[in-house]
Each structure stands twice: as C-alpha cells, then as structure tokens.
Amino acid sequence: MADRPGRPDPPGATRVHGITDEQVRAQGRPPAEALAEVAAALRAAADAGTPVVAFRAGFDCTLLSYELERHGLEQPAWERLAVVDPSVLDKRVDKYRRGKRTLGATSLQYGVVHDGAHSAAGDAEATVALARAIGALYPEVGDLTPQDLHASQVRWHAEDAASLEAYFKRKGRDETVDRRWPLQR
User: Fold this and answer.
1) How far, in Å, CA of 74 to CA of 68, rounded?
2) Which has the higher per-residue pLDDT, 185 or 79?
3) Axis crossing angle, helix 146-170 with helix 86-93, rounded to the nearest 10
4) What is the end-to-end Cα distance of the chain in Å, rounded?
5) What count of other Cβ atoms lies within 10 Å of the Cβ of residue 74?
C-alpha cells in the first residue's frame, strides 16, 4: 500500500479494503507525489474557506503531517483549515450512547447509507452525509460556521480527553490522553 511502497500488503488488509498489490503497482503513485498533492488540496481548501470533513480527523491529520515531514514536503495551512469530524460531533451530541463508534456503526445510528465501506469514495461519501445528518438533527452543531464548528470541536475533543483521563485515574491507571486536535503532535 501507499505506506509500504515496494512491500506486499498483508492479506488481512487486502481483505478489508480490496486493494491488491497488483493494483498498487499498476495504479499507484510515488508517495511524495501523492502527499504533495493532498497537502496542496488542503492549502487550497484553507485559502477558499472550504471545510474538510474527515472521520477521526485527529488520526488522519496527524499521520499526514508526519508523512509530509518524513518526505520533506510543505505542510498544509493547518492553523487556517476548518476541519469537521463527525466522530467528534457524535461524541458531543450523544455522549453516553453505548456501542461502537466506527464510521459504519455511527452511520447506521444516524440512518446514513455507507455503501463501499473501506473504499475512499464510499467512506468519504458516508462521512460527509454523516456530518450533514448530525448537523440537521442538532442545530447547536448545524448552525455553526465551519470555523466556529472547528473551534468548538477543538474544545470538545479536549473536554472528552480530560474526561477519559479522569476515568483512567479513577480506575488506578496513570494514563494521559492527548487533548490536541486535529493535529496530535
């Protein structure tokens, strides 16, 4: 895969996303080239004030940042980017719901169709639809501008991290939870 250029993808990963090593060799691009394109698209989104929607954005943004650094590439304008993360929104509006909070489970919770799970297009379509569904159901989320929503998510994530850390402490576990979002570095 893209993170393992020149090495075979583990069979379990291929079963999940359906991408074979042959497809990667035939259709893949050099990592630095693809990463530079993603960073340029994020800079353009920041310049245009277009929000970027990502499920579990903290993981994706942090990984992207490290990979750009590893390849010596320019970072996007993180400080100007408005990120919308349905996983953060869901946790805010339905904090105590039990069960999984994966993209598939959360989509099901809000009646969002998630066709093509684990494909880039399928996951992206479900993520955007999920953000819209949460915004429609909860005006306190849906009525915010993308920039205000981003700032709120930064705060909400930090509050959730502090709450989880307090829970760990009550259980006798000395663990810290990163309060930064969407970049956790």
Assistant:
1) 7
2) 79
3) 60
4) 24
5) 12
Q: Which residues contact 72 (CB under 8 A, 6 or more apart)?
A: 32
Chain centre distance of CA 50: 16
pLDDT tens, position by position, 61-96: 999 999 999 999 999 999 999 999 999 999 999 999
Report which residue type is found at 7. Answer: R
Of 50, 27, 44, residue with least CA distance to 120: 27
Task: List pLDDT tens digits, range 82-132.
Answer: 999 999 999 999 999 999 999 999 999 999 999 988 888 999 999 999 999
Q: What is the largest CA-CA distance in the chain?
A: 52
Those residues whose C-beta lies under 8 Å from the C-beta of residue 61, and which sit 6 or more positions away, are 54, 78, 83, 182, 183, 184
d(C-alpha 182, C-alpha 89), whole Å: 13
Contacts of 54 (CB under 8 A, 6+ apart): 60, 61, 83, 84, 85, 127, 182
Given this model, what pLDDT does residue 5 score? 55
pTM over 0.90: no
69, 166 Cβ separation under 8 angstroms: no
- The confidence score (pLDDT) of residue 6 equals 64
